[in-house]
Amino acid sequence: EYGARCRRVMNLMFMLPDVPGLGVWQIDTSSFYSIREINSTLEIIKNLTKRPDYPEGRIAFIPLTLSLGPYDVSPPGISKKTVHIMHIRTDVKLADIIRHAMLPPGRVLVPEPELEEAPDDLFPKEVLELHEAQPAEKPPPAQEEDIFGLNAEREEEWTAIRKLMGEVHVNEKTARSYFANVCDISVTIEELAKETVPPALTVHMLKEFRQRLEQSRMNL
After folding, report:
1. What are the domain boundaries of the chain?
2. Which InterPro entries match (predicted)?
3. Which residues, 6 or more positions from 28, have their beta carbon under 8 angstroms from its beta carbon?
4. Helix 94-102 and helix 203-219: axis angle, to 10°?
5. How far from 6 is each of 1, 2, 65, CA to CA, in Å?
6. Can you tell me the distance from the alpha carbon of 13 to that of 194, in angstroms, rounded to the nearest whole number?
7. Which pLDDT tens digit goes with each residue over 27-86?
8. Quick one: CA torsion of 72, 74, 75, 76, rounded to 10 degrees?
9. Within 10 A of 71 (CB to CB), how many other CB atoms are there?
10. How much is the pLDDT for 114?
């Protein structure tokens, strides 16, 4: 009796980070085409963001754009027409989605701090000349020796990471953001572009990053 009058309704809940106030917004729609379009896009994103800690994928706190736009449809028995449906904009880069999925949810919406170069006249010329004239201190023996093969292991991990970064299209800027947000380690883009492993990165940090890159490659 009620079957003919029942309609599928989608309750889409989302957050607006640039709108003042806290809370979750909701849009309801019974449009078949809006529901199909949004669900298909979200399913693709979930497949791209599957990781050991998110086996079903992740959508939360990944910035997306919801739009209303024209869409050509051909319902049965009706000639082709144009309707306006909701859809998620597809101008989001694949590398951005993977990068956001690597970050903790609370840090995704925080803009990356801009790194400013120190001005040339920050230090007096006399101080710079004195610093250059002093011989560099010799590092302690513990830093010169390859203790228990850790340096070799770090180099091996770094070689694998550089190869994976090229395969999943993750650049040095994205890697720098990962180490800054997840590991609380400051690494320069120049260090990340070298074939030698950055000194600040430990074996544990490198393994964690490699595992996340491998998971991203599996989802491509």
Report:
1. 3-92, 140-219
2. Gp3-like
3. 9, 10, 11, 12
4. 140
5. 10, 6, 30
6. 44
7. 999 998 899 999 998 898 888 888 777 788 888 888 888 999 998 888 787 888 899 999
8. 180
9. 16
10. 54
Three-state SS letters, the chain: CCHHHCCCCEEEEECCCCCCCCCCEEEEECCHHHHHHHHHHHHHHHHHCCECCECCCCCCCCCCCEEEEEEEECCCCCCCEEEEEEEECCCCCHHHHHHHHHCCHHHHCCCCCCCCCCCCCCCCHHHHHHHHHCCCCCCCHHHHCCHHHHHHHHHHHHHHHHHHHHHCCCCHHHHHHHHHHHCCCCCCHHHHHCCCCCCCCCHHHHHHHHHHHHHHHHHC
Helices 203-219 + 32-48 axis angle, to 10: 140
Report the pLDDT value the prediction gives residue 55, as an integer from 0 to 100: 84
**Cβ atoms 48, 97 nearer than 8 A:** yes
Token pair in block for residue 156: 């091996």
Which pLDDT does position 111 carry in this prediction?
55
The residue assigned the tokens 């144009």 is: 82
Residue ranges for the chain with pLDDT beneath 50: 118, 122, 127, 139-148
pTM for the model stands at 0.47
